[in-house]
Amino acid sequence: MSLRAELVRVGLRWFMKRRPYATVHAAREGSVAAARWIPKPPGEAKVFAVDAGGVVSELITTPASRGDRHVLFLHGGGYVTGSPALYRHFTWRIATATRMRVLAIDYRLAPEHPFPAALDDAVAAYRWLVGGGADPQCLMVMGDSAGGGLALALLLRLRDDGMPLPGAAVALSPWTDLALTGASLCLNAKSDPMLDPDSARLVAASYLAGADPRNPYVSPLYGDPRGLPPTLIHVGGDEILRDDAIRMAENLQAADCRVELEVWPRMPHVWHLFTPILPEANEAIARIGAFADRVLAA
Fold this sequence. Notes:
Blueprint: H1 3-17, H2 24-35, E1 46-51, E2 56-61, E3 70-74, H3 88-98, E4 101-105, H4 117-131, E5 139-144, H5 146-160, E6 168-172, H6 184-187, H7 197-208, E7 231-236, H8 242-254, E8 259-264, H9 279-295
Parallel strand pairs: 3-4, 3-5, 5-6, 6-7, 7-8
Antiparallel strand pairs: 1-2, 2-4
């Protein structure tokens, strides 16, 4: 683990863990404040506003992006905050590492738009990509945190609806269990430098709005993953969501799905977003690119 990673952990604990969000409004204010520190993409990265089947979205490309390879990216934020704009420093790097065009969607947020609004928007954007000529076997669904859980829920929904599945999926520190039953939720409550269980309960209630937290389209951990495509899962070893990732990987493996689980010691929640500060973030992004090359159609 790098010295920079240790410093990031200290900073996260000081600026985030000590000030847990008591309301959705406070969480959104935190996202706005964080946006000031996010670097802009380089000039070679192009960001286009698009309407993806009625869903406001951004299409991100770099000189490395191939026209026949696509990523559908679903951002994190506990289903209550976040946007593609907050991820531009990351999505252009994914476009380069995977040599793909990245469609980052601005799905509707809770509590104004609770479940299943986010999932419906993800389905609409996927249908738009495929309907526009994207080959599913050259398409990868990807998300972080809540977006990681949403990506896995999307796979279940597409399969159940009889849609062709993408060739691959990537879930970064995915939130797969909104029933909040993972042992790491308590075991790692102190060691996680970024997230806390109370905030998870707050945003879960906002998104659920009375829905069953064990509905597989809410919490893919409770679904039958048979037939899902090759999946890469990254998670930090002392995250409160560690067991959401591990148990999801175990379910995929038990269903004879191809899954690659990487538990990175002492990495904070979705450490990939701390590029270019963390060398571990750059290494993880490179591994995502290598995974895409291994599993997607040539």
